[in-house]
Design brief:
Elements lengths: L1 H123 L7 E2 L11 E2 L6 E2 L5 E2 L12 E5 L8 E5 L1
Antiparallel strand pairs: 1-2, 3-4, 5-6
Amino acid sequence: MASGLLPVACATAVILSVVRRWLNQHEARTTASVNQLLAQHRLKEDELTERERAVITQERRLVRMTAFSDLRARSVYDRIDMVTNDNQALRKRCEDLETDLAEVSEEYNEIVGEVLRQRGSVFTRRTTGTATLIMGGGNEQARPHPVPIPLSRPSADGEDHARPTAARPRYPVRLILAQPRDGTAAREHESM
């Protein structure tokens, strides 16, 4: 029986060593694959961590830019409101000034008209005699002279000023550059 067991034991030992070697090789291959997968997993985790940091940084930057843009937009809207209010106040002031100018021009025209009527009545008034200026003395200059009615009156500075005329409203004058069709040089002329 011992001789029958020896080949079985040798065959078993050989089979066991082959199986053990195969198991060791399989375990080494599995360990290498697992280590390779772990390394790839670490690389992916590092890459995902970097991406997460970049996304967080980008989100923070976007939040800051959004807040800054909102602040600028609010500032622009506030400035537009201020300018609009100032514009409305200036329009109201301009309308008031135009109304005042119209009233003052009307009053001025009435005064000028009255002055002109009074001066005109001097020329049209009928008198029974002749107005004479007697200078006194027995010389030739003592002759009566007609009283001249000045067309202008002297002012405090000694210069004569023309009769007042009616006020005209002022409109902006625009210069227009007109090019004649005959090819001559362009001329400027005023337009109301």
